[in-house]
Amino acid sequence: MDPYRYDIRPVPLHGAALRQLDAFLEANGLRLDRLITRYLGVFEGEKLVAGGGYAGRVLRCIAVDPAHRGEGLLGALLARLRAELAEQGHLFLFTKPQNEPLFADLGFTALERAAEALLMTSDPGDFTRYLARLAALRTPGPIGCCVLNANPFTLGHRYLVERAAARCTRLMVFVVEEELSELPFPVRIRLVREGCADLRGVTVLPGGDYIISQATFPSYFLKTADAAARAYCELDLRVFARHIAPAAGITRRFVGEEPFSPVTALYNETMRRILPEAGIALDILPRQAVAGEPVSASRVRALLAAGRLEEARPLLPETTYRFFTHPEAKPVLDRIRAGIGREGEPR
């Protein structure tokens, strides 16, 4: 890249700059991911000719104007992005499958692919180590799993885990690790562990970077059931079915029915297609109802936001209820009242 001709600088994500960015991405067959917190543009004067953004450790919306390809802009842009994220460790990158050779030449390795999306990583060894840790937990007999966000852990979650545990020798409960919910991850996984402590054969684990994360399934956090969500859905489930389940010895996955969230309903639908192909059984269990109404974490949060903890109590395990009565819950309740977190609420 000619530094006298081009300039790399942040693109403000508002006003006229945002409109210019939206037009640039649309012209390159992309749209701005609303999770992106920073976007760097390569400018020729005031014309945006290349750019890329990130959310956390995931690079997204990388594009180069066709008229400027072959000029080293992509390499210079990625070098700048990687420098900004150097303290984050390994990075992930979303792109279209046909772009794999471009990014492979710049140090990224394909992790998994779907028809319309490719997930790449700067450190494939991290995934290998993740799988090895799961493999070390394998035990004889049927192993099942379920994945919870648990924002917060409710009797609905407990109902799902209890019934899933009764159908297998060992149940792995993965808790979504991304910090995009009102309850911080350390609180969510603590409440799941406390709420399942009496259940035999249940192991509660952090989901990490590879189970419903910004890297594998950002639409889970955006709550948009569109074409992009379908691609991300498939990516996340192929990572699970082709890599995680075999390493951990998982042969059955348990989910609850989803009457509320379109994205989670789409996820369940995609599981029906992908998991059996990999020899993994899918059990969709009915949701627990209280007073004729399905238990949902969003309903609990609404009651907590309104200061109606006692009304939420019938929807909560005693361990979760006790947490919210303790002074340490005040920062969490403040976040719930402020609506800090993501849109919507799947299980």
Number of strands: 14
Query: Over all CA atoms, what is the radius of gyration?
Result: 22 Å
The total count of helices amounts to 13
Spatial order of the strands in the main sheet?
Answer: 1-2-3-4-5-7-6
User: From N to C, what is the helix and strand string?
Assistant: EHEEEHEHEEHEHEHEHHEHEEEHHHH
Question: Helix share of residues?
Answer: 25-40%
| Uncertain stretches of 5 or more adjacent residues | 342-347
Mean pLDDT: 89
Described by its quaternary structure, the protein is single chain
State the secondary-structure class: alpha/beta
Largest sheet: 7 strands, mixed
Strand content: 15-25%
End-to-end Cα distance, whole Å, is: 47 Å
Shape: globular
Structure, described:
By secondary structure, the chain is an alpha/beta fold. Helix content is 39%, strand content 21%. It contains 13 helices and 14 strands. It has helices spanning 15-27, 73-84, 100-104, 124-135, 155-165, 185-195, 219-222, 227-248, 262-277, 297-305, 309-312, 318-325, 330-338, and strands at residues 7-10, 38-44, 47-55, 58-64, 92-95, 109-113, 118-121, 143-148, 170-175, 202-206, 250-256, 281-285, 289-290, 293-294. The strands form three sheets. It has a seven-stranded mixed beta sheet with strand order 1-2-3-4-5-7-6, sandwiched between helices. Helix 8 (227-248) packs across helix 9. The longest helix has 22 residues, at 227-248. The chain is globular, with a radius of gyration of 22 Å. It starts with 6 loop residues before the first strand and ends in a 9-residue tail after the last helix. Residues 342-347 have low confidence and may be disordered.
